[in-house]
Amino acid sequence: MDVLDLSRWQFGITTVYHFLFVPLTIGLSAIVAGLQTAWHRTGNPTYLRLTKFWGKLFLINFAMGVVTGIVQEFQFGMNWSEYSRFVGDVFGAPLAMEGLIAFFLESTFLGLWIFGWDRLPPRLHLASIWAVAIGTTLSGYFILAANSWMQHPVGYRINPQTGRAELTDIWAVLINSTNLVTFPHVIFGAFIAAGMFILGVSAWQILKRKHVELFRTSARVGMIVTLVAAVGVVVSGHLQAQIMTRQQPMKMAAAEALWDDETSAGFSIFAVGDVENGRNHINIQIPYGLSLLATDTLHGRVEGINDIQTRYEAQYGPGDYRPIIGVTYWSFRLMIGFGVLAALIAFAGLWFLRGKRLPKNPWFYRIGILSIGLPVLANSLGWIFTEMGRQPWIVFGLKKTAAAVSPGVSVTEAALTLTGFTLLYGVLAIIEVGLLVKFIRRGPEDEPGPEKADTVPALSY
Question: Mind listing the pLDDT tens digit for each residue in 140-197?
Fold first, then answer.
């Protein structure tokens, strides 16, 4: 491997690892705030116990997200200095806003929330966790604004003397059409991750017959959040596909292994392609599905890989403008599949838990525990699709990834940092899982006040 390959692997590994924590942090912050609001309004100690229990897990995840996110900033200067030199004036603005506005908001009020339980007035303490949730969401918005500029650059000019991109309109960057559809899609995906995490942990507690009534309530909250968020993911994903078709047609074509321009294009379910010759050997499709997804009409025209390649060569010069088709195609499919499966499990769970019922057979709880990983996989694959589908561009239409790597970094240095960060993140993963398991097993704190019976009939094995 050369420096470019090693740098891409390092950035990919650290980014995917970091994003394991981001969706859960965003989703849990708002859910914890909602639970505390329910306790504030009703005085029901059930909501207070759930607030404190899920709040602890949120704090563990938040801390790990901060630690792993710092590395992302360093990599722009360490491994991608040519990229930083080219886009720093534009890319740095939303990242600076994220640090100065969003992170400052969430970190400051998180401290007030942690230490203010018996020191702040109840309403002010409640407002603190809502400020954390707002700050966490704003943080996602600014970061996605920076990423969306890489997908669809706006609000800039190229300085002819320096060859650098310079910011001309910060509002154009912040309300980039790409960001306006990407942001809700990511946020809804975060709520699915948080909802399924709550369902899985609640299922484990019920399976172990611990705090059963408490976690029956918790499981219902998780499943309702998941289903509502799943609707949002579908709607925002549909809008995102239409934006992608207009702005990055190669990414859309690669996602569907569509080789030639086609009217009334079908949505591919399974394909076996011949990349060298630009065609498919096997392609099982849903008729008209792609045209409906991309154009809102059954007979819409969708551009194919071969035709876009020809057009890009005329526009940008000789070169291969196709992403890795297999990675793009299957990451898109698996992202959708894991997300749909999570929504179906949440729907089935609400049916089984309707009224006061609790399934006696343990299979449901075991599925609930395993389902924690479904939205994690869906979110990670979504980002892999987004970033791999943009290749060979690091900034679409302006700069290729191959021209963005640091010229002063050697293969040895890149290999050492790649190995070092991978090992470090492995250790952090062990710490994260260990802390989560420790506090999950410890369970919620007891609070004064009347409680419902916390027992359940033995499960049938």
Answer: 899 899 999 999 999 999 998 888 989 999 999 999 999 999 999 999 999 999 999 9
Tokens read off for 370: 């395993």
Rounded-to-integer distance, Cα 186 and Cα 37, Å: 24
Question: Within 10 A of 275 (CB to CB), how many other CB atoms are there?
Answer: 14
Cα distances (Å, whole numbers) of residue 368 to 101, 215, 344, 347, 457: 37, 13, 11, 12, 19
Domain that holds residue 190: 3-248+323-442
Q: Are 378 and 370 within 8 A, CB to CB?
A: no
How big is the CA angle at 238 (ends 234 and 243), to the nearest 5 degrees? 145
Residues 6+ apart with CB under 8 A from 112: 120, 125, 128
3-state helix, strand and coil shares in percent for the chain, rounded to the nearest 5: 70, 5, 25
| Burial grade of 352 (CB within 10 A; 0-12, 13-18, 19 or more) | middle
CB 17 within 8 A of CB 64: no
Q: Are residues 110 and 136 in the same domain?
A: yes
Can you give the pTM of this predicted structure?
0.87
Same structural domain, 259 and 151? no
